[in-house]
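TL;DR need structure tokens for one chain.
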Amino acid sequence: MASLMYSFSFDGETNGVLGLPARVFRQKLSEWTPNVQYYSAKEYQRLNHALSYDVRGTLALLVFEPSGQSCVGVLELILTSQKINYAPEVDKVCKALEVGCP
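>> reply
TL;DR here they are.
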């Protein structure tokens, strides 16, 4: 299993097309899809990578500071299986994040 971390520049005033993490951060709404392979390259900027590595589902979750007042980032999960119900994955991520917090 490989992991990838990247950052994005976000000044709140962009007119360009935002990628998934930046879009979620800007809108403050989690986003998911069962299969990104149905998207156009404009809708999912990493479509070529998704096709090459058989990426199907994506789930982008907002991460808040412990007080819950401020969003500090976006956690993106990518899956090689097509899913409709992400509740088990969200539950696992939330539990893992809680363990890591003081």
